[in-house]
Amino acid sequence: VLPNNINLLGSSYTRDDYTNVTDRIAALIGRNLHLQKCHPLNLVQQRIVNYFYKTFVNSRQNPQFSVFNNLSPIVSVTQNFDSLLIPENHPSRAKSDCYYINREYLLRAHMTAHQSELLLAGLNDFLMIGDVYRRDEIDRTHYPVFHQLDAVRLRTRDNLFPDGKLELFESGNNTSYIGAQEKQPCHTLTAVKLMEQELKSTLEGLAICLFGNVQFRWVDTQFPFTQPSWELEVFYKDDWLELLGCGIMKQAILTNSGVTDRIGWAFGLGLERVAMCLYQIPDIRLFWSKDSGFLSQFKVFSVDENIKYKEISQFPQCTNDISFWLPNNDQEFSNNDFYDLVRSIGGDMVEQVQLIDNFIHPKTKKTSHCYRIIYRHMHKTLTQAEVNVLHAKISETARQKLGILIR
Ligand code: PHE
């Protein structure tokens, strides 16, 4: 039986029907890779912070942006969703996608969760950097904990229109379009256009600062907390890679935090993505490695030094499949439940889990899933015998905890 409380970062929380933080995930809270000296995520973070420090200075040549890189990853549902106008029924709130501590608290799913509180504190230009938690598939580019850098910049009417002739706000139903995307009715088109220009040139500058002379493109998108919204993609290794999401902040977020005279832009970017490209790191699990063979490669004097990661060694993969019938009420089963279970037992010895077959029996109407689990340790060769023990434990635990029937 589970104890009724869960202890995280020195506080105790009451478990309820929403609790789904696993011990393995809990053990990663507080590692703060982005704060670890000479860690690749720390190098990337510093490069981005430096870019903002030098790009935006006040009249006394001091940086305008404040940096918050030590905010607690435990946030309320209000912070993570409500304060950002994310609708009650939005898929990103699902239990199957988030690590809930209970119905009231969760491990933040994005750094944007802190936007409102910092606005309320009176800040105008700030960066928020930290670890975020999402239940997801398992492969070389996904890990349930990763790191994001978010930014907010607010501008007043004086900032945008120094000659005092134009306005930030209007009370019309002016349906002006920017590309395919409507502006918010409360904003003047000129103000939005100026904000869009500053946002895009700032982020293009950032992409060039990080990657040098890359090709990039803007893609229209949607977020509940910005409008209009865009994604910036860069062309990397024969493919378009989504680097960040951004947009003009929903005005209601500002007014709910007591800001009535400013308009803002915001963006959020994943640090692992950037570091994997920049240093050619092939597998996202490596960021969590304590092996000096990995970490020593990032001991540099300057964060701008050119580093190319050299693989410590490539140990062989070991592949085992598992097939089972889902519980009779297959609504109860989510693929992420199985992924979390595999992670809890296999840990970082699991490189990938793929759903390779999914069918419904014509007579019994039962659903069958077959998953391929690819085992590979980062620092040693796994024997088939070791893998068999793990694999058997995974199937036995899945039988007990998920109510599935092994085939
Ligand atoms: N929070 C968004 C994400 O995690 C990124 C984002 C931040 C988009 C701020 C717009 C503005 O994908």
Automatic annotation (TrEMBL):
Q: What is its EC number?
A: 6.1.1.20
Q: Where is the signal peptide?
A: none
User: Which InterPro entries does the record match to this protein?
Assistant: aa-tRNA-synth_II, aa-tRNA-synth_II/BPL/LPL, Fdx_antiC-bd, Fdx_antiC-bd_sf, Phe-tRNA-synth_IIc_mito, Phenylalanyl-tRNA_Synthase
GO CC annotation: mitochondrial matrix
Q: Where in the cell is it found?
A: Mitochondrion matrix
Q: Which GO terms describe its biological process?
A: translation
Quickly give the catalysed reaction.
Answer: tRNA(Phe) + L-phenylalanine + ATP = L-phenylalanyl-tRNA(Phe) + AMP + diphosphate + H(+)
Q: Relate the protein's function as given in its record.
A: Is responsible for the charging of tRNA(Phe) with phenylalanine in mitochondrial translation. To a lesser extent, also catalyzes direct attachment of m-Tyr (an oxidized version of Phe) to tRNA(Phe), thereby opening the way for delivery of the misacylated tRNA to the ribosome and incorporation of ROS-damaged amino acid into proteins.
Q: How does it assemble?
A: Monomer.
The record's annotation in PANTHER family points to: PHENYLALANINE--TRNA LIGASE, MITOCHONDRIAL (PTHR11538:SF41), PHENYLALANYL-TRNA SYNTHETASE (PTHR11538)
The UniProt similarity line reads: Belongs to the class-II aminoacyl-tRNA synthetase family.
Q: What is this protein called?
A: Phenylalanine--tRNA ligase, mitochondrial
Please name the source species. Hypothenemus hampei
